[in-house]
Amino acid sequence: MGRRARGAGPTSRLLPLLLLLRLARGAAGEPGTDGLDVCATCHEHATCQQREGKRICICNYGFVGNGRTQCVDKNECQFGATVVCGNHTSCHNTPGGFYCICLEGYRATNNNKTFIPNDGTFCTDIDECEVSGLCRHGGRCVNTPGSFECYCMDGYLLRNGSEPFHPTIDATSCTEINCGNPPEMRHAILVENHSSRLGGVAHYICQEGFESPGGKITSVCTEKGTWRESTLTCTEILTKINDVSVFNDTCVRWQMNSERINSKIVYVISVKGQRLDAIESVHEETVKLTTDSRTPEVCLALYPGTNYTVHISIAPPRRSVPAVIGFQTAEDDILEDDGMFNISIFNETCLKLNRHSRKIGSEYMYQFTVLGQRWYLDNFSHATSFNFTTRERVPVVCLNLYPTTDYTVNVSLLRSPKPHSVQITIATPPAVKQTISNISGFNETCLRWNIIKKVDMEEMYLFHIWGQRWYQKEFVREMTFNISTSSQDPEVCLELHPGTNYNVSLRALSSEFPVVISLTTQITEPPLPEVEFFMVHRGPLPRLRLRKAKEKNGPISSYQVLVLPLALQSAFSCDSEGASSFFSNTSDADGYVAAELLAKDVPDDAMEIPIGDRLYYGHYYNAPLKTGKDYCIILRITSEWNKIRHSPCCRWWVLDWAPWLL
């Protein structure tokens, strides 16, 4: 055992010396050394590099380790996507690198799906609202960071959900406001042909015997799809009959206290008479008188030498405080016929002839001459003449008269020893029955209707027109005029403003009540706003100075500034909806929207927009113009209402654009 150990000693001491010699030769660059072997031993993800006279292995970009035995992938995403890629991104590690992807609702400014942020690319919001109809019919799209929201436009009502809503998530929709039938008003009558759309107005008139002291009663269709009831009501008219007096022995006169009654009133005069020598009543009669006089009077057919009680009241539905008067008629000893008689009116068109003579059984002949005219028609006249024979002392004759006509009736007693004539005037009221039927609109601003009347008889029509705009609260148009025609089927075209809701009240003056119809005029092309365009050759950015357009022909929705290559300007249509933002195009060769301003955001005084100032106007980026290019700058104004859209525009040219200053 001991010899074995001693014999191996010299060999084991020489081995380290040989290794040192070998290393020294390799350092001197001798052939066969390890100089080339270092590079050969580099890791597959490493590179051999010369540094300070030595060859060493260094891990490639994206890897970490000693370069020879270890090069491990470096996870650049470990610090978080926001730090590495920026806002609204997701980071994805790859062997030796990484890439970034924009989150849903955003896109890369280099227009690629993936990017690395060291070239300045970042994620910008996608304006989903550039796609028309995204929020369905009646919906208004509002862009939000990474998404969008939908709201109902003015004139539309939310159904099956709440605002804001998203069409891809829920079934919420917008329907045009329709309030349906207006509410009933106590003691009031609804005038037909009202509009049930937003802003529509239902008009009411009080029933006979009622009034609205506070003014006209209306109900308005609101943005909630319901009718807003009027705070005004119809209250009962209570009329007092005062100062009743007797004149000419058999005539009665009284006074009215109400100043609020403009129509004719029907009075009921109840007569009860008893002679001085009789136990029971000998004369009872009820007479009706229709008149609009403030001091009505009536002459009664009374017996002489009789005590009478006269009770005066107003016929329903009006209410009154009745009046009572008692008196005695004078004795009449004259038996001879003196030809005298008087006339009283009742039931509007009926005459009662009261003979003074007490002779009974004699036959009398009366001649009636009737002439009627209408104050509002120059060519209208109604004339008739006839004889009437009777043995009655108090005969009644009812005349066939036209409504709303002033008549003069002359009655003469014929074949009498003492001829006598009495003249009386009758003003007939308007017809209670509606004479206008089948009213309809055509050509947007024209009306036609049928009239129930005698052929070739002229009629006058009174128009009362109200116009309102929901988008322009201060806009109110009211006009009143009349026309005359003898046609059975009249037509008239009205001078109406565009983009306006109208209520048209039409009444034939021979009728008491009007008919009402609603008309809606469509918008027309809006007037172009006042615009100044400043262009300085080789100067600052071209500037567009804009003043707000007037909403003459309809509501203004928005203003857009578009930038087109000059070569495309002839093919561009102002009514097109295909223009997109700068970032949605792969290049600016197709043109783009540089700015969009909602009408409510445009001040009343002038505002300036430098073309290419790199700012956002609305949801659009105002990209810089390229040097040496020819451009067409377009200002487009959009008016949209009731499914009609108009978009006129004005144009300017920028030739050989150069941004250098003088």
TrEMBL record:
Localization in the cell: Membrane
EGF-like domain span: 35-72, 73-112, 125-162
Q: Keyword set for this entry?
A: Disulfide bond, EGF-like domain, Glycoprotein, Membrane, Repeat, Signal, Sushi, Transmembrane, Transmembrane helix
InterPro entries linked: EGF, EGF-like_Ca-bd_dom, EGF-type_Asp/Asn_hydroxyl_site, EGF_Ca-bd_CS, Fn3_PTPRU, NOTCH1_EGF-like, R-tyr_protein_phosphatases, Sushi/SCR/CCP_sf
Q: What is its main location?
A: membrane
Q: Which residues form the Sushi domain?
A: 177-236
Signal peptide span: 1-29
Keyword Cell division attributed: no
Looking up SUPFAM superfamilies in the UniProt record yields: Complement control module/SCR domain, EGF/Laminin
Is-annotated flag, keyword Transmembrane helix? Answer: yes
Membrane topology category? Single-pass type I membrane protein
Q: Which domain of life is it from?
A: Eukaryota
A GO CC annotation given for this chain: membrane
One MF term in the entry's GO annotations: calcium ion binding
This one is known as: Sushi domain-containing protein 1 isoform X4
Query: Which species is listed as the source?
Result: Sapajus apella (Brown-capped capuchin)
